[in-house]
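Q: What structure does this chain adopt?
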Amino acid sequence: FSLGHQEESVAYLSWSTTDKEPFIELTSASRIMYVGAKESYAPSLIRTSESIPNFAESFYFEMKVTNCGHNGEIGIGLATRGAKTNRMPGWDEGTIGYHGDNGGIYHASGSAVEVTETFTTHDIVSCHVNRVQVDKLGFCNVIQFGKNGAAVGPLMYMLNEELHPAIGMHSEGASVETNLGEDAFAYKLRGTIMSH
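A:
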């Protein structure tokens, strides 16, 4: 199965200033920092204010790690509106995530379903979602993660979910720059493989 060469739908989303944990700080429209100290250390998630629009057959976003922090536990992924924000993406039902500290891909579980490449400071990681109509009533979200332009891990699936891009952090001093489509992406997509 391949994601194919579908046109990217233009859909500009923005990070929520309220739908997040207090240890996540949005310092600009695209810069996110973890501000928790060791004594108040807790996982924190931020998601976009709106879900990926239903009309978008394909959606892609990137995150450049500007500082991996003290342990590198940073995640990129997707979350439903009801998913907890005091958890990393992928640890709970309605979430999926790719984590930098161990290269784990998590889907509705605290245990990685796949372990692939780790990522750290200066890496650019991404999440690509294609919506595929399954029948008259529903669709399937086909998800591919990437690192520095190359696909990592297997294709993952989430059925009939309205998903929000999400970033999770659990590393003191961590910071990232995100791109939800408001700027040119560092990498272009070609099927399941991303290239310059």
